[in-house]
Amino acid sequence: xxxxxxxxxxxxxxxxxxxxxxxxxxxxxxxxxxxxxxxxxxxxxxxxxxxxxxxxxxxxxxxxxxxxxxxxxxxxxxxxxxxxxxxxxxxxxxxxxxxxxxxxxxxxxxxxxxxxxxxxxxxxxxxxxxxxxxxxxxxxxxxxxxxxxxxxxxxxxxxxxxxxxxxxxxxxxxxxxxxxxxxxxxxxxxxxxxxxxxxxxxxxxxxxxxxxxxxxxxxxxxxxxxxxxxxxxxxxxxxxxxxxxxxxxxxxxxxxxxxxxxxxxxxxxxxxxxxxxxxxxxxxxxxxxxxxxxxxxxxxxxxxxxxxxxxxxxxxxxxxxxxxxxxxxxxxxxxxxxxxxxxxxxxxxxxxxxxxxxxxxxxxxxxxxxxxxxxxxxxxxxxxxxxxxxxxxxxxxx
Length: 398
Ligand SMILES: Cc1ncc(COP(=O)(O)O)c(C=O)c1O
Prior knowledge:
The radius of gyration is 21 Å and the shape is globular. The chain has helices spanning 7-10, 16-22, 44-57, 59-63, 72-86, 100-112, 127-135, 152-161, 184-197, 220-223, 252-265, 271-283, 286-311, 337-346, 377-397, and strands spanning 30-31, 93-98, 118-123, 139-146, 149-150, 165-170, 200-204, 229-234, 246-251, 317-318, 326-330, 349-350, 352-353, 367-371. α9 (184-197) links the parallel β6 and β7 (200-204). Helices cover 45% and strands 16% of the residues. Pyridoxal-5'-phosphate (PLP) is lined by residues 35, 100-102, 126, 128, 171, 176, 204, 206, 234, 236, 241, 246.
């Protein structure tokens, strides 16, 4: 059968990360390739009790259609928390519950972009967002990322040199894949540039709650006085990823359009899990739960950074994240990334090559992403030693 797939989808490659998952699971394999939260972050017993209660007392609400904007008690709780923790939410803003941050990103692009419109993105960036933009006919254009956030000069060049730039997509806090946090000075400068060139900012912040060291940096949305920033958040990394609960906070006018777009996609987010999420926040101490996750990731990140410092040759650079679940390693240019990843795979250690996150799929990369939320403490030490031996071996050969 000759399926003539649409042009938009014809050129979309399967996620390299999903491909790597196919090789995982062999006994003794160590994966630094995941983007998953550690399962210990799921409050299983509490959720089991809440599920029983919901089916005992409110089964019809859980099983009936809901409203597109989201389960009212959850919307209220999320809006309150955003205000309290992040200073987000003005009288002109509204909030919609979405099926994971992934849908929030996709709906924003769907509502904002015409075919061929440009979305500026940090390069490297989150593959799920890049593919969402591509699948909608928008054009992700990469702007290099420095150690303190997006490169301002390159951002301004991109704004000057591209027609029809609709918005900047940014993950300013504990970036995926690089683990970098954009400084306050840069955030202010980016807001000014957005104002100068009349573009919106989509601020994606699924990891913002997971700071384990350093000082919080204000979100773009909390500094926005013009309704220029669309904020996307998620419960995936603090309660459960499978629950698929995320949210968008933005100007009312824009949210009303996103509501229509969501009606076409999935009518509304799963009501049962919205109820679980709301009742968890009402009944339990979400902040204490998040504090435990931060502590776990502080330990795991510390183990990984410690092992990299001890074993990795100096020629290999790496970022030191202050939160989130990833760090980013860079090989010297004379070493081949694909050969490094191949040798690691042969030793049953899996990393994601930087090419997977590139805004230009043809671009060469010398970097790879390491995840520390999923591997056990022992695996972190063993796996980094193996990667360090491969780097040393390849440096000796070069
Ligand atoms: C930067 C970034 N944004 C958004 C998401 C989507 O998360 P979810 O759809 O589970 O809320 C992820 C998931 O890994 C991510 O890394």
